[in-house]
Each structure stands twice: as C-alpha cells, then as structure tokens.
Amino acid sequence: MKNRRTAQTLHFLKWIRRHSGLWYLLCTPGDEHMNLNMMRQLIGQLYQEGFYEMIFVLLMVHRDNPALSHVSEYLLLDSFIARWSQEKENIMQEIQILLE
Fold this sequence. Notes:
mainly alpha, about 100 residues, 2 domains
C-alpha cells in the first residue's frame, strides 16, 4: 500500500511539472482564463490520469464560478432522483443536519 501511494504521489507531482499551467488554473479561484471549456479540459485531464480527488478540489476552488452553478444544481438533483424512492428519510435527515 505504501509503495502504491508513493507511486501515485510521484505520478501526480510529475503531472504538475508537465502541466504547470493547468495546475495553476486548478488552484487559482477567479482566474480570468477559467471558463467552461477550460474546466471541461481540466476535468478530462484529471479523470484520464486518475486524479479523481483533484476533480472535487477543482469544483470547490471554483465554486463561485458562474459556469459551475448549474453543474452543482444538476448533481444535487440527480443525486436526489437516484436516492429518493429508497432513502427519502435519510436525505431529509442529512438536510436537517446540514442546516443546523
């Protein structure tokens, strides 16, 4: 496990070195070059490399980007649709807890 994690970290660091411009965009909220097409490209790159956690980091760093507002809404709605019939009580409890 430790060797696997070390290999993943090295792979990630080498990706940052090769794609320093994309890494900068990922880490910089409000950057003028971050638009919907760039976001798609960056998410595609991260997915292709297996950097799934970084996709969520990207979405959080750029959560105030107007292009992402509809993505969050659709993800939430899709989640409700998929879970509602069997988990509506749990969903309502989760909402109540988050609103406390």
